[in-house]
Design a protein that fits this description.
alpha/beta, Spore Coat Polysaccharide Biosynthesis Protein SpsA, Chain A, seven-stranded mixed β-sheet, 9 helices, about 40% helix, globular
Length: about 270
């Protein structure tokens, strides 16, 4: 992986400093059998992207930032921070994730560049704590789980970090999945890890904001083993591109419910 550069403006809180120290120690214990790659979809995240990259643990083989039509300095800042930067001009969260997957599938792997065993998805807005990646991947490495979701539990959420539409939408979606599929999900959080070969088996299709629920539903239908781990969540840097607008929240909600009902009657 390219050498990551320290975010020059990054100032850690006491919690962040302690959390990073704990996770750095944890990363020494976790030794994945294959490589770990991180895919970060990003749209106009120039203020946050370098901070996200700087706090991702060193055990990660490659950080892939997919700029989804960014018009600011997101791409430049990500590249300067040590990430591989791709461009996806078709607008949509799913399009950006698929672009990252396509890039990985076309890589040539040899003794120096091993095929990834785990793919981690992480947003570029700095609302998650990237150092908690070690917690996200631990159940895959230690318990052979196929999919791990970072659950943004209430007691670890900063006030205002999730809007009411997000909270209600999460509750409704996970309740419906429990009703129809006996699922144990509590969140549709974007911070997640999945075995690479299992990700390919899902044959992901959603191009926009139904991406997370599509992954979770297909994992259920295919009988994948899964679990959730509680993660901290803070107010993002900048304005949300989805939940920050009524139109965006409604559109995301329709996409999520559409996937649930589609699979409920299959």
């Amino acid at each position: 992986m390219p050498q990551k550069k320290q975010d020059p403006q990054g100032k850690q809180t006491k919690y962040e400093s302690e959390n990073n120290s704990i996770n750095e120690a944890k990363s020494q214990e976790i030794k994945p059998s294959g490589g770990i790659k991180v895919i970060i979809p990003a749209y106009n995240e120039e203020e946050s992207i370098a901070k996200v990259i700087a706090e991702i643990p060193e055990i990660v083989q490659e950080i892939i930032v997919v700029s989804n039509n960014s018009t600011d300095a997101t791409e430049e800042n990500a590249e300067n921070a040590g990430a591989t930067v791709l461009q996806e001009h078709r607008k949509g969260y799913g399009y950006a994730c698929l672009k990252g997957m396509d890039y990985i599938s076309k890589q040539t792997f040899d003794q120096l560049r091993t095929k990834p065993n785990i793919i981690v998805f992480l947003d570029g807005d700095y609302s998650d704590f990237p150092a908690e990646l070690t917690k996200i991947i631990a159940p895959i490495i230690e318990k052979d789980k196929d999919l791990v979701i970072g659950s943004r539990v209430k007691k670890w959420r900063e006030k205002g970090s999730m809007t009411f539409p997000q909270i209600f939408g999460n509750w409704l979606a996970t309740s419906l999945m429990k009703l129809f599929f006996n699922a144990r999900y509590t969140d549709l959080g974007p911070f997640r890890a999945i075995k690479y070969h299992k990700l390919l088996e899902l044959e992901m299709q959603d191009k926009t904001y139904g991406w997370t629920v599509e992954m979770q539903l297909k994992a259920l239908k295919k009988g994948f083993s899964y679990t959730e781990v509680p993660v901290h969540y803070k107010n993002r840097i900048g304005t949300s591109k989805v939940s920050g607008t009524v139109k965006g929240a409604i559109f995301a909600g329709i996409k999520i419910l559409g996937w649930i009902f589609k699979y409920s009657f299959k």
